[in-house]
Amino acid sequence: MYAWRQMSETLRRDMLAQRKLQKRPWHSPPHWRSDRTERYLFTAACFEHQPVIGASRQRLAEFEDHLLSVVEDSTKDVHAWVVLPNHYHFLATTEDPLVVLRALARLHGRTSFRWNGEDGLRGRKVWCGAAETAMKSERHFWATLNYIHHNPVKHGWVKKWQDWPFSSSAGFLEKSGRAEVERLWKEFPIKDYGKGWDD
After folding, report:
1. What is the pLDDT of residues 134-193, one digit of tens each?
2. Per DSSP, what are the bridge partners of residue 133?
3. What SS3 class is residue 36?
């Protein structure tokens, strides 16, 4: 994710030339609208994975409320979410992911300004840009949902995913029932999901 800073000037020039040739954005991931699906995983991380969201439990809870408000206003349906001290993921249905990304950009701007004021760090870069991934199949959708709910365990915040309070996991367990959640976990395992981009 942060390979750019480790690259030599020659590698950077080559990468930029390649991105220009492919008509892709020079420094950020391209955003596509899929004709096959309306379901997307959205992800954003704090710059260099610093735990800015997690400066306090109150900040985590407030950000979760703000994020869900933005997501509910800009999507058709929210299937799963998790907010961690340095990043978040959510799985949603939307006709236009760019509308969601613009809403997230505004949220990031507001929270950056507020948190930098609270922390006495004006000018600090808080966020990396959000990215979306279209769901390719039902299997991809359910594995992604499992991955989101398992994320606090993966990153060592809790031992059981339903114990993380800033997530849809406890509500999903209550609504679906333990037997159904266990079936989904076995049928749609996460395996190496997230390797290389959510380590």
Report:
1. 999 999 999 999 999 999 999 999 999 889 999 999 999 999 999 999 999 899 988 777
2. 41
3. coil
State the burial class of residue 153 (Cβ atoms within 10 Å of its Cβ: 0-12, 13-18, 19+). middle
3-class secondary-structure state, position 193: coil
HEC letters along 93-117: ECCCHHHHHHHHHHHHHHHHHHHHH
C-alpha to C-alpha distance for 37 and 39, rounded to whole angstroms: 5
Residue tagged 């808080």 (tokens): 126
| Prediction pTM value | 0.80
Residue 39 in contact with residue 93, Cβ under 8 Å?
A: yes
**What's the CA angle centered on 142, arms 140 and 143, to 5 degrees?**
65
Cβ–Cβ < 8 Å for 42, 94: no
Taking the CA atoms of residue 126, residue 127, residue 128 and residue 131 in that order, the dihedral angle to the nearest 10 degrees is 170
Query: What CA–CA distance (Å, rounded) separates 160 from 177?
Result: 16
Place of tokens 């507020």: 114
